[in-house]
Amino acid sequence: MSRGTSTTDVWDAFFSDFYLRAYASEERDAAAEAQALAAARLSGCPEGGELLDVPCGFGRHCVPLARAGYRVTGVDRSGALLDEARRRAAGERWPKFSQADYRELPFGDASFDAALNLFTSLGYLGDEEDAKVLAEIRRVLRPGGKLVLETMHRDHMVRTWSDNGWRLMGEGRVLLEQRTFDPAEGVAQTTQTLVEPDGTRESRTWSARVYAATELVALARAAGFAEVKCWGGFEYEPLSVGTRLMLVARS
């Protein structure tokens, strides 16, 4: 069931030039690189191993992972984001990129040593479709390979909730947010308005599923993962209402 999450048309409009202008500031690249390397370590991917970054967005994680020696493949549905990822990769042999919906990955079974799903990149399509995503990732992992999924979880979001907020996004842009949350359905609706330095505004509204840790563990197990553990950080910190969620699932 979708539980009121947005359609693919809404997400395609969001993960576009709008998303790039909002999030592609290089001011946050150093933190993203550190998180990506920590996630790869948590996944147990061997040095020089085959690593899947899905979805990879504009390459903030997969490009530094490739520079660190991993043979990274980045997958994303958005052509606009992949174009920026290729620009950042600057023609290097790795990472490779593939444009695809992550419910139907264009790879054979057991193609990767590990997989990463970072920066709250699940919950867009509802429980059933998200389960398909996890099952596809498990399919392309080699036996014993791990998925590291880093996301917001419901208890943390409730603790830190505010109806409105704003952030400076680099190059003089401001991102305004108006939010509502249905705790029974576990669905958050967000309207983001990007204010350019010249004062022009553009808005996108979307709804996403925010899972409790127990719900996400159940989804991963239903997708066929043999072992699922949750942490509150990349260094095995305990999960709590004050942390984000690191789910580590072994195929």
Automatic annotation (TrEMBL):
CDD domains: AdoMet_MTases (cd02440). Residues 52-145 form the Methyltransferase domain. Gene3D superfamilies: S-adenosyl-L-methionine-dependent methyltransferases, Vaccinia Virus protein VP39. Signal peptide: none annotated. It comes from the Bacteria. Pfam families: Methyltransf_25. GO terms for biological process: methylation. Keywords: Methyltransferase, Transferase. The keyword Methyltransferase applies. One of its GO terms (molecular function) is methyltransferase activity. This is Methyltransferase domain-containing protein. It comes from Solirubrobacter deserti.
